[in-house]
Structures are given as structure tokens and as C-alpha cells.
Amino acid sequence: MQSAPGAYTIIGGRQYLYFVGTGYLGLHGHPEVLRAACEATEKYGMGSATSRRGFGNTPPTLDVEARAAEFFGKDDAMYFMTGYLGNSVLVQGLAGTFDLVAVDESSHYSVMDAAVLSQRPIVKFANRNPESLAAVLAEHCTDGKRPLVITDGVFPVRGIIAPVDGYYRALKPYAGSALMVDDAHALGAVGPTGRGSLEHAGLPWETVNTNVQPDGAPRLFVSGTLSKAFGAYGGIVPGSADFIDALKADSPYYRAASALPPANAAASAKAFELVRDHPEMLQRLRDNVKLLRDGLRGLGLDVDDSLVPIICLVLDTVERMKQVQAELMEQGILIAYNPKYSDLGPKGGIRIAVFATHTKEMIQRLIDGVAKVLAV
Ligand SMILES: Cc1ncc(COP(=O)(O)O)c(C=O)c1O
């Protein structure tokens, strides 16, 4: 890649109409985001060369946490190296509050890593299947064992939202239970105000990432990233003041890893500001998602009408999917055939991502391009 990712992106020296990756709100090349990163670098250097527990809390680092708290309607947030670590940050913070980890069998690699890190027994349930979760819990959560369920909120290649409300219901009979969602692809893009899959499902947002467990209901936790919809870089966990204070106090990532470069923090803080001040970006993303989903469905493809900006096409054969990708590339349009990923079956799948910055004409070009390739 030889440009910022955007509606048009230069790959291998050629500019493509680009429907790949995760820059859903189209902010990675936004001039204000770039300026914020440059100014922060000039002022604070490449990095603080110390941990956050040391003296690494530069103004942009504190700023991005304040902006995240504002966006998510929480008191505070913890900003850390990469969204990939979100599940691990939470699992470490929640140590001692659960006895068993139940994971969706198709969860992201980062979920599986965090489950191992928890040093608790791990059981798997069938992908996006609350009944399977209920059966697994009934079998393994005897003698008052407290389960922690971990899942992707939106699956990264299939683009399907997890039935988190079903998991919440399945967890209700178990005292001390908790549901933890890796919402890397949902924060900023899914849910009425962009707060992700828990908001989308109507679960009690006010209890998310807090120390409160109202009426014995399952506790709710979420982690995410600023590297996708939010157009910058770094992992994020927003939450109540006491929850975040405790998370930071216990986290080895806070204590013993270099703080994120101020450029990343400043860019992320600016991206939050832009998202807050320009709600039309999220609306435009939604309009584009609908346009593309409707268009592809109109070609007879199996595409549902969700608002997730990721569309996955699993065609008859691997060869056919590779051919579709190659022929679209010839037309100057880039979509990605993924042979392997945590949420894909043995054939892999074509992943198409749509951004707020795609125009109607660009989306129509993609639909026409797919139609042309499939007609052959
Ligand atoms: C579900 C999920 N979690 C976490 C990550 C990693 O996030 P980041 O790229 O911010 O490290 C990804 C990456 O695509 C992902 O799909």
C-alpha cells in the first residue's frame, strides 16, 4: 500500500477503487487527523520512552481517553497498544471473578489468546449459537462455577453480528456470570450511536465496563480499537471511573509497556472529535452499506440487510472467488479473497468493506463490476 487507505488506495503502484480493510468512516487519511499526528510528533517526540505507569501519560494520551469517555458516555477509558490486546487487557483485569471461559468457536485469534491467558478452563460453543452456549454452560457450570463468555461482536470477515442478547439470556441463570465482547469492527460503525453490538442489541449500556452487577444480571464488558472505524490507531476500553482505575492499576500493559506514540493518540483524539462533530459520516456509512447490500442482493447474491459495513461472499469454489477478485482488479476495483481467517470455513471467502467516503457512483461501479464478472 503506497497511500493512506481510502475510497481510492494505491496498491503495488496502481490506484484502485478500494473496498478492503477496516477504514469504515474513511478517516485514516483525513487531513485533520494527519495534522494532529504531525503536530503531536513535533511537540512530544516519537514516544515517551517510558510506560504509562512511569511518566508516559502525554497530553494526547490523556486526551484520547477523555474523548473516548465522551463518545461512549462513560467516565474514563484505557487506551493501549492495539485492539488485538483488548480481550487480554479485560481478562487480566477481571482475574478472580470467573471460573471458566466459554468462547464462540469462530472467535478472533485475539479472543482465543485471551482465553488462554486467563488460565481458566476453556470451552467452546457453536458459532453464533445461544442454544449451544446454553448447553455448554449447563454441562460445565455446575457447583456455582461463574462463566465468562467471550465473543467477537461483529465477525471480521463474515460481517455478521453476534447474538449477544441470546448469550445474555443464556447467562442469566448463572450467578456471577459475564459477557465480554470484542467489538473491534462494531465500535463507531454499529448500533444507533455507534457504540457497537451491545448497543445494537439493546443491552443495558450503563452497566457495561463497570463494577455494577444489577439484580444479579450478567456483567457486560467490551473492548475495541481505534484502528478501524475511528481512523487512527490503538486499543480502547471505555468504562466507569472505578472500573478503569482498577484496570490500569493491575494491567501489566499499563505498567510495563511503552506508552503509545503521541502521534497515534493525537490522531485518535482528533478522529473522536470528527465523529462527534460530524454525525453525518455514520449516516453516510449506513446509506452506503444499504446501497451496496441492496445492489448485491439484486444480483441474486446471498446478502442480508444488516448495517455492518462488511459483506462476505462465499461462492461455489475457491477458483471462482479468486477469479472474481482477479477480474475486478483488472477493472481497477479491489476486493479481498481471504483463504483463511478465524470466522471462515475451509473455502475462505470474499470480503468487501464499504466506507463512508465511497460515493454512490463508486458503489454502483463495484456492483456493475461484480455483475459483469458473475455473468461470465
Ligand atoms: C475481532 C478483532 N479483534 C481485534 C482485532 C485487532 O485489532 P487491531 O487491529 O486494532 O489490533 C481484529 C483485527 O482485525 C479483529 O478482527
CATH class category name of the largest domain:
Alpha Beta
Radius of gyration: 21 Å
What can be said about the biggest beta sheet?
7 strands, mixed
Hetero groups: pyridoxal-5'-phosphate
Shape: globular
Average pLDDT, all residues: 96
Helix-strand pattern, N to C?
A: EEHHEHEHEHEHEHEEHHHHEHEEEH
* Class from secondary-structure proportions: alpha/beta
Helix fraction?
25-40%
End-to-end C-alpha gap: 30 Å
Q: How large is the share of residues in beta strands?
A: 15-25%
Number of strands: 13
Q: Stretches where pLDDT falls below 50 for ≥5 residues?
A: none
Number of domains: 2
Give the tags:
alpha/beta, globular, 376 residues, seven-stranded mixed β-sheet, 2 domains, Aspartate Aminotransferase, domain 1, binds pyridoxal-5'-phosphate, Aspartate Aminotransferase, domain 2
Structure description:
Helix 7 links the parallel strand 7 and strand 8. This protein has two domains: 8-19 and 279-375, Aspartate Aminotransferase, domain 1 (Alpha-Beta Complex), CATH 3.90.1150.10; 34-277, Aspartate Aminotransferase, domain 2 (3-Layer(aba) Sandwich). Helix 3 runs parallel beside helix 4 (109-117), helix 5 runs parallel beside helix 6 (164-171) and helix 12 (318-330) crosses helix 13. The mean pLDDT is 96. The chain is α/β, with parallel strands linked by helices and 376 residues long. It has 13 helices and 13 strands. It has a seven-stranded mixed sheet, with helices on both faces. 39% of the residues lie in helices and 16% in strands. The protein has helices at residues 31-44, 59-72, 86-93, 109-117, 130-140, 164-171, 197-200, 241-250, 252-256, 262-277, 280-298, 318-330, 360-375; strands at 8-11, 14-18, 76-80, 100-104, 122-125, 147-152, 178-182, 219-225, 235-239, 310-313, 333-334, 336-338, 349-353.
